[in-house]
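# nightly structure sweep
# worker-07 picked up a monomer target from the shared queue
# config: single-sequence mode, recycle default, output format = structure tokens
# input follows
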Amino acid sequence: MRHPVAPSSLGSQPIGEVARIVDGVYQLKLPVPFPLKFISSYLISGSDGWTVIDPGFDYLPAREAWEREAIKIGLDPDSDIEKIVVTHLHPDHIGLARWLEERSGAPVLMLGEEIENARRVWDPAKGVEPFVEFLIRNGMDEETARPTAGSTSLGIRLPERLIPLRDGEILELGDREARVIHTPGHSDFHFVMHDEERRLLFAGDHVLLRITPNIGLWTYTAPRPLERYLNSLKSLRGLDMELVLPGHGPLFHDLDGRIEELLWHHAERLDVMHAAFNGREASPFEIARRVFSDDLSAHQLRFALAETLAHLEHLADDDRAERLEGEVVSYIAR
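# output follows
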């Protein structure tokens, strides 16, 4: 039996601290106020200034960590940042981009289509009512749907200067280069960066160790996120990687091994959801309550439903379930 992919000994510093990973590349573990505990921001030095990858969640302890730790490696956030790169629109990755942009004057770079998505998702004029309706349509009762939808109101301030990247583009990271690779699934236009010379993969939330990224069907995502995620995982097989630097959790070395673990995990989850019907028609929310823990917070419940929807859609595409339209959507196993 294959042994689980082991974590690297690199990046073992406590949350809130910075550490050198390889020459010119540092990891700053920024605290977040939810169960993930921290997000990794990667700081890359170069002759023209520093590149920051995923600056973190806009949260006072994270700002304090930036102030305290950056100076230890000779990075002045007010003058030394050349550019800020954001792998995707989620608040723990993009949240502090505006704060760093305002301080440093550095541009913020994302895939072009993700910039468009971010402007829609974090539009301050957009209310929660469409999301409440989405939750109710998928089987959640209104008393649960309203606090669940309300838990998404994070007030993200997007950067003023957002520069679009393209899939396949070569991006300067300090004094080296990395190829931008579009890796949809966790977000429609998530991307990773492959530094071929140093054999590094800056993986965002696409490939994590010990936990799996949420692959969900949301009001703003394109259809088939799970299919797109599995395909994009497979496309990374065979990259000559020495080290994977993810957005959360430990660094690790065996990219192909972790890809196989993630593919197996989703195959198992599809089987679990298929079995959860017990031969009867059920709403997506009913299936979510059967396959996820009973003690989820409102914040976690929305992720559970979105992930269930992505897996049910995949089962229907594989002709293992049928979607039944109505005032409340339901599925039945085949």
